[in-house]
Amino acid sequence: MKGELFDAIEQIAREKNLPLEKLIEFIESGMASAYHRDFLGPSSLARIDVKLDRKTGDPSVFRTKTVVKEVTDPELEISLNDAKEYAPEVEEGDEIKIEVTPHGFGRIAAQSARQVLAQKLREAERDLIYQEFSSRVNDVISGVANRFEGKGIYLDIGRAEAYLPPSDQVSRDHLKSGQRIKVYLTEVRRTSRGAQILVSRTHSNFLKRLFELEVPEIASKIVELKAVAREPGFRSKIAVWSRDPRVDPIGACIGSRGQRIQAIVDELRGEKIDIIPWSDDPSEFITKALSPAKVSRVIISNSNDRTALVLVPDQQLSLAIGREGQNARLAARLTGWRIDIKSESQFEVKTSPTT
Fold first, then answer.
1. What contacts 79, CB < 8 A, 6 or more positions away?
2. Which among 46, 153, 173, 276 is most buried, taking Cβ atoms within 10 Å?
3. What is the pLDDT of residue 15?
């Protein structure tokens, strides 16, 4: 009996990655529920516990009662005189456990508790999945495109599925079933059907975490990624700074022969990434942020509301603004400044005295 029962318990514990003692508690709880239903009825308030003998595997049923001088509720109370028959040292106010195991209860209870145990196993597994993935929120994980529902995609991430909503997908992805991708874990929700794991490929922190994974100097905090501005699937700008003057932050991000940055670009399906040096000087930072355009001059219009006028050579104006304003827009997001870009000739016309 012991061998068969506990061999089965140990096997389930291994398969479900559950602590053995926790699994035994589930079984005991299921057996207690079965006893309550089959021997007492649903209206009974009796306190029932079942304990499995760790040597034989046999279940024992115990009923807990409070020792009183005069019994008013036989289900929950026992007189002091009757209690002393079980435990001579017992006193009024104590609680006593009385064994009430019926003949053949082991077989009956095991059968009856199976459904309860299965439910508790499902709940425990869901809880373990929730705990595992909720501790990894804001991290990058890998998944395989498993199934498609509408425009949403479910990814196989091992012990669970993650949902990639349409709004968090990059237009360049064009994912196919069985394709492996990296995603950013944004949220884990508890639901009646288990943990709902939400992931993204458009989140700005996704780009940041990819750099942390590919660039050891960022992971070790020698190089700091100060700011990120991203238009997913098209172009991004990142500002980096080195705590060690001997370490070139841009070179660290690019890597030997561009291997580090290329790995990130490949993961993002060709998204262009501009890496610029961060500066605490607003004029210098804005100048670098508008790269690859050349800047002639930055005029800080109002430092309180963080607005700046940027002058560029006439032939650099379209490059500074970018296609549909993308370069200027990303530079503004990266620096946190409102940037007004004008060509040198536009500025001269505006500021020249009228005759």
1. 67, 68, 69, 70, 71
2. 153
3. 76
Which residues lie closer than 8 Å to 6 by C-beta, 6 or more apart? Answer: 57
Structural domain including 271 reads: 203-278
Q: Is 126 exposed, middle or buried (0-12, 13-18, 19+ CB in 10 A)?
A: middle
Question: Domain check: are 19 and 55 in the same one?
Answer: yes
Q: What is the DSSP letter of 353?
A: P
Say yes or no: 232 and 352 in one domain: no
CATH number for the domain including 188? 2.40.50.140
Question: 223-231 and 297-302 as β-strands: parallel, antiparallel, unpaired?
Answer: unpaired
How confident is the model over 171-218, as pLDDT tens digits? 888 888 999 999 999 999 998 888 899 999 999 899 999 999 999 999
138 within domain boundaries: no
Q: Which pLDDT tens digit goes with each residue over 274-329? A: 999 999 999 999 999 999 999 999 999 777 889 999 999 999 999 999 999 999 99
Structural domain ending residue among the three candidates 200, 215, 237: 200
pLDDT of residue 109: 64
Asked if 342 and 309 touch (Cβ cutoff 8 Å), the reply is: yes
User: Is the CB of residue 48 less than 8 Å from the CB of residue 75?
Assistant: no
Q: What is the CATH number of the domain that holds 290?
A: 3.30.300.20
